Amino acid sequence: MNDNVSSQVTWSLALDARQEGETLQNWLYRALRQDILGGRLPRNHLLPGTRHLAAQYGLARGTVQAAYNQLLSEGYLETAKGSGTRVSLTLPHDHRAQARRAPESTESTDAAPLLPTSRWARELVEQSPAFLLDSQSQSKPFVPHCCDVASFPIDIWRRLHARHLAAVQPTILSRRTAQGSPALRQAIADHLAIARGVAVSAENIVLVSSVQQALDICLRLIIEPGDAVWMEDPGYTGARQILLGARANVVDVPVDELGIVVDEGIRKAPHARLAYVTPCRQAPMGVALSPDRRLTLLQWARDNGAYVFEDDYDSEYRFIAKPIPALKSMPQADHHVILAGTFSKLLFPAIGLAYLALPPQLVEPFTRAMSLTARNANSLAQAVLADFMTEGHFDRHIRKMRKLYAARAKAFESLSRQLWADFIEFTPIHAGLDVAGRLKGFSEPDALALLQNCGIGAFPLSRYTQSVVMPPGLVMGFAAHTEPQIEQKMILVAQALLDSSAPHRN
Predict the structure, then answer these.
(1) Is residue 324 within 8 Å of 291, Cβ to Cβ?
(2) For residue 256, how many C-alpha atoms fall within 13 Å in the half-sphere facing its CB?
(3) Strand arrangement, sheet containing 473-477
(4) pLDDT band at residue 286, thresholds of 50, 70 and 90?
């Protein structure tokens, strides 16, 4: 059955208004026929019974039966014993083209008025943020920011999910807590203490749907339009768009091999209200913020009454030595650092759960803001995740994936040196799901075109930059693919490089 065939039933039909002097039967016939031709009632759509439709519009049942019979006789409707009255799968021959054109023919011939929108709305349409990926793009090998969902223990998750569904009581269905499940907040607090070195009370944790949502609400609580906010450059495109949406004065602060250049941020905007940083694994360059710069950043925040929004990007997946403690773990962080983490990369994107570890003074305002906007993150998913963590499944999964991703990172790094030496040079992979590389003799458009012809995805490094000018480069993901898959695709690209007549020089 194709996409425009429906088997649903509409028990409440909103029909076109009756014209002056039009009989009830003619109006009902015309309105139904018009909706069928316009596609609002798609093929195979089950219509309400004559008795129900007559009661809805205060008609005699015979009037509805007469209109249905006329549409049946003309081939717009069909009926069979036990299946009700439906829109015909095949419309009358001379109306097929008309049915396809109907959505256009029912529109006004006047041009739609150009109603004003905000600058942010226009920028969102004009740009292509890195985080907006459709399912087809995500399935391409080497697309960055993708985790391996195939390795997730779905059977355990399904069992925990079924257990909670079996225990559901009516009162649970109406329960909504803006701050989030106490059990999950405690599980997160316990995890942060062990894995990230952060001593935080469950009372200071709030559950959200995403880090973007968390940043959006924090900005509304902390800044006024026009206030300066530091943004890493290159940096996470999604965060930049949120800052622009909050009408912040975005101050681009460069990143080098030691992380965000804090002294440059202080020089450009010493009285900024907030700094957005990814200190444990900078997005997208993968470097860690040096100890000296951490201290300088925190001292600046304390001296100026500013906040630091710490996006704990990919921090759990570190492949060498021990994980780097979160910035919020430092004693100087106290009331100034907001720590944000997500389960979308740690478990699977569709879970739609993230968390904030907030300074005490922001807990109540943030919780109230959540109750006014999103109300709360998915309660059932919270309950299941709490069990998943407290029963040890979460830690086991992270250990398993860290080992898998480390092996894939090693294979990606080694094979790229062997097969792509004249194409791109990647930085060493110490953590995360993806890696940035510098192109060698290729422009970004030419490199992307070559990869696309091989069925491979990547993001240009320029997508992450704003004011800083960087050499041409790509950001590519390795975590979602096995080592044999990585080798197969790298050989495919290597062959394409050999087959090309000459490198595309800048």
Answers:
(1) no
(2) 8
(3) 424-426, 434-439, 473-477, 459-460
(4) very high
Q: Whose structure tokens read 């990230």?
A: 196
State the SS3 of 311-341: ECCCCCCECCCCCCCCHHHCHHHCCCEEEEE
CA neighbor of 227 nearest in space, from 242, 247, 241: 247
32: Cβ contacts below 8 Å, ≥ 6 apart: 15, 41, 47, 67, 71, 76
Q: Rounded to whole angstroms, how far apart are CA atoms 431 and 410?
A: 11
Within 373-392, residue ranges assigned H as helices are: 379-390
List all residues 6 or more positions away from 207 whose beta carbon is below 8 Å from its beta carbon. Answer: 179, 180, 181, 184, 185, 353, 354, 355, 376, 377, 382
In whole angstroms, what is the distance from residue 164 CA to residue 166 CA? 5
Domains and CATH numbers, the chain: 24-105 (1.10.10.10), 134-147+396-499 (3.90.1150.10), 152-392 (3.40.640.10)
451, 120 Cβ separation under 8 angstroms = no
CA dist 449 → 124, 303, 452, 506 (Å):
24, 49, 5, 14
Look at the block and give the residue holding tokens 């049946």.
72
Instruction: Give the predicted TM-score (pTM) of the model.
Output: 0.81
CB 385 within 8 A of CB 455: no
Distance from C-alpha of 462 to C-alpha of 237, rounded to nearest angstrom: 11
Lookup: tokens for 418: 């062997």
Rounded to whole angstroms, the Cα distance separating 50 from 66 reads 10
Tens digit of each residue's pLDDT (9 = 90 or more) over 74-99: 889 998 777 788 898 888 854 444 44
Which DSSP helix (H) or strand (E) runs through 41?
none
Residue type, 470: M
Paired tokens of 450: 């070559």
| Count of Cβ atoms closer than 10 Å to residue 306 Cβ | 21
pLDDT at 506 over 80: no
CA–CA distance, 106 with 34 (Å, rounded to integer): 9
Count of residues making up the chain: 506
* Cis before 284 (ω within 30): yes
Q: Which helix (H) or strand (E) holds 50?
A: helix 50-57
Identify which of 312, 228, 227 has the alpha carbon closest to the alpha carbon of residue 266.
Answer: 228
CA 83 to chain centre: 41
- Top pLDDT among 345 and 4 is at 345
Identify whether the C-beta of residue 259 lies closer than 8 Å to the C-beta of residue 276.
no
Q: Does the structure show a pLDDT above 80 at 457?
A: yes
**Which runs of E-coded beta strand occur in 317-467?**
337-342, 354-357, 424-426, 434-439, 459-460
- Measured in whole angstroms, the distance separating CA 358 from the mean position of its chain's CA atoms is 23
- Copy the structure tokens of residue 395: 């830690």
